[in-house]
Specification:
Layout (H helix, E strand, L loop, with lengths): L1 E2 L14 E6 L3 E7 L1 H22 L6 H4 L2 E6 L2 H8 L6 E6 L6 E5 L11 H16 L7 H12 L2 E2 L3 E4 L7 H6 L5 H5 L8 H19 L2 H15 L4 H9 L2 H13 L6 E4 L9 E4 L2 H15 L3 H17 L4 H13 L3 H14 L4 H17 L5 H17 L4 H13 L6 H13 L4 H13 L3 H12 L9 H10 L4 H7 L11
Parallel strand pairs: 3-4, 4-6
Antiparallel strand pairs: 1-5, 2-3, 2-10, 5-6, 7-8, 8-9
Helix pairs in contact: 1-4, 4-5, 5-8, 9-10, 12-13, 12-14, 13-14, 14-15, 14-16, 15-16, 16-17, 16-18, 17-18, 18-19, 19-20, 20-21, 21-22
Length: about 500
Amino acid sequence: MMAAASGAATLAAPAQAEWYEATGRHVVVYANDSADAVRKQAEQLERFDAAIRLVRGLPDTDIDTSNKLTVYVVANDSVVQRLFGAGGKNIAGFYDGRASGSVAFTPGRSDRSEGGLDPQIVLFHEYAHHALLGHSELAVPRWYSEGFAEFMSTTRFDKDVFWIGAPAQHRAYTLLEGQGMSAEKLFATDRRKLSDSETSELYARGWLLTHVLALDRTRAAQFSTYLTLFNQGMPSSEAATKAFGDLKALNKEMNKRLSGSSFPAYKLSNDRLPKPEVSLRPLRPGEKAMIALRMRSDRGVNRETAQPILAEATPIAAKYADDPVVQGWFAEMALDAGRNDVAEAAADRALALDPKSSQALVYKAQVHLRRASAAHAKDPAVWKEARSWLLKANKLDNNDAYALMLYYSSFGMAHDVPTANAKAALAQAHMLVPQDEALTFAYGVQSLLDGKTDDARLALRTLAYSPHAPVDNPAARLLAQIDAGKTGPAALAAAGGKKDDVTLD
């Protein structure tokens, strides 16, 4: 999530704006802009992805392409905040990692003259969260989660070179006029609620500390030690003192970097990045009519908030019954609202139009699984039929994380012991989308029940030490029992959990 530096004005859409879908290797971008602008946004994100992989030494495999990040570019900060809902008055963008499809919401334009954030900075910030969560087996503290995203957000692409580590000009006011949150205080911010001013300090000074650590080899090695200690359960402040030594000296180093006449940065040739390949298409009339509702739906809803979305979507779906994407989106809205009959009818229409719609196959499966569960079905044939739709989706793409997750979850819904194939599906889904916290917890619990204690500990610690989770969260309680020597069901019971905790929906 990115906190706004200040509010942004509402601006009209640009001339010749149209809704487009731009698809790259790692992202799908929906935006109401010119064709050239939307294509460039997707290409910049693909370059940014490649830059992150280059500096962090990460491979780029075909697995990463099956679960692309969907980016919704909306008019301005105000729209982002409305989509976020309660607690979002000061944000400029946000990200949600999910097996059903990771999403990010970012503004298309901001009034820079009024202190609004550059939309590209917001976009890069949110994508950096996605990349960090997707390629790290270590939990990271809050200051680094936001500091790293801020550090990467200022990445700049020039004609022949690109820069990583450019000054965070958008945090200049807080850095120069703020309270100057010290290194000691940064390390102590985890797990407590921050005021708006403290949050601004966390972003700004977190960026500065990350900058110091990233561009100094000695400090980088110390940071690695700090993360190891932090992931062993040592409190952040204590781990920092052991790893960095004198924190007052580290704070002086931060202030020296800030007051210097220039900032060091990585300067790398664009030749080191693959040329981005992006396909572009305008949305069809039905998709355009539905896209605003799709964004509200894809942001995440509950049974209550799904009702008005379904009501507004119903006449649109009826008008565009010949559009498979519209019918797929409508099926999800109906599922969220608890209208299984409507959802199945929409999924059937989508499949009739596009038999290879994995989205529709998964929704069809969910309807049948829900019916079997509601009927307390005992006949294995009923569950086999429901799972058959997931197997069809898996055949189309065996790296569809949501289909894999639901296949595993179906055994919990049936109150059956998951098969070896189901457990393999869960492990594969977790590998594909480690950003999904519920999925990660389920994988950790299942690993524990299977006697794979090391795998369980690895999965649970990223949740146990998450900066956004309370100290006494379920993963932390379970990890404490594992560290105390308990294993399997005994550890789960001692932590106050039960086997049903591995059921997902």
